[in-house]
Amino acid sequence: MALHLMAQPVVMHGFISDPLASGLGFLPRCLICEPASSIGRRFSANMRRDDTALSTFAARLKSILLRTMPTWDDNRTLKPESLTLTPSARTLLIAFADTMEAAQAPRGALSHITGAASKVAEQAARIAGVLTLWTDLEARKVQPDIMADAIILAQFYLSEASRLASAANVSAEIDKAEALRKWLLENWTEAHVLVRDVVRLGPNPLRESPKARAALGILERHGWLVALEPGTVVRGAARAEAWAIVKGADNVV
């Protein structure tokens, strides 16, 4: 298997859940992570460091960069070598790919990030290639122990993508609920509100029933609305679903 070592770590938040961004196919080819903030823990004692590992890393990187790249007979065109998988490494990668594929099924653990999950096996292969060549530039095969380590790293980046996407989705839902709350306060004069009221007259992002119902549910959970019993008469008709607006609610969405 030829490996194109293109992936690189990036830090982002929210952007990963954007359907347009994900649909372009760029983000799934990146390794996403967002380290926890160190604010509140940046004490002088924690700032001491041992540069031995960093120096070792820098020395190895320098030796790789100084190496003469293989070229064709014209001495200008690069001639990349092929890096293949041993049978055992390939077996590990295939099993990992199948597991990730199954997790993308509807309601599966990775169904919300199918773009990243679909590429994670490729990412594992690329990482394995980097780890292999970092150790030995003359290597021509990825060994199973290296592939196992690469899979662990790929799973970490996939878990970060999942966490950030989930957090971004929650933030987006809260933003929509807050827009609805402001609309109810500033534009709605009735004592009760229906899903169809929001769909017909509410904020533009909520002009679909599932989105309107989700925003109403969030406001209900935060005390801004109270769900009425099914069949309650609102504006002259029995309603299967309706909410009473809580006057003077000071909860924060």
Descriptive overview:
This protein is mainly α and 253 residues long. It folds into 2 domains: 9-35 and 52-169, no CATH class; 188-245, no CATH class. Helix content is 48%, strand content 9%. It is built from 7 helices and 9 strands, in the order E-H-E-H-E-H-H-E-H-E-H-H-E-E-E-E. The chain has helices at 19-23, 52-65, 87-102, 114-135, 144-187, 195-201, 209-221, and strands at 9-10, 31-32, 84-85, 141-142, 192-193, 225-227, 232-234, 237-239, 243-245. It has a 3-stranded antiparallel sheet. A two-stranded parallel ribbon has the order 1-2. Helix 1 links the parallel strand 1 (9-10) and strand 2 (31-32). Helix 3 (87-102) packs parallel to helix 5. The longest helix is centred in the middle third of the chain and has 44 residues, at 144-187.
SS summary, helix count: 7
State the low-pLDDT regions, or none.
Answer: 1-14
Tell me the domain tally: 2
Helix content: 40-55%
Listing every helix as H and every strand as E from the N terminus to the C terminus, the arrangement reads EHEHEHHEHEHHEEEE
Largest sheet: 3 strands, antiparallel
Query: Taking all residues together, what is the mean pLDDT?
Result: 85
Shape field: elongated
Number of DSSP strand runs:
9
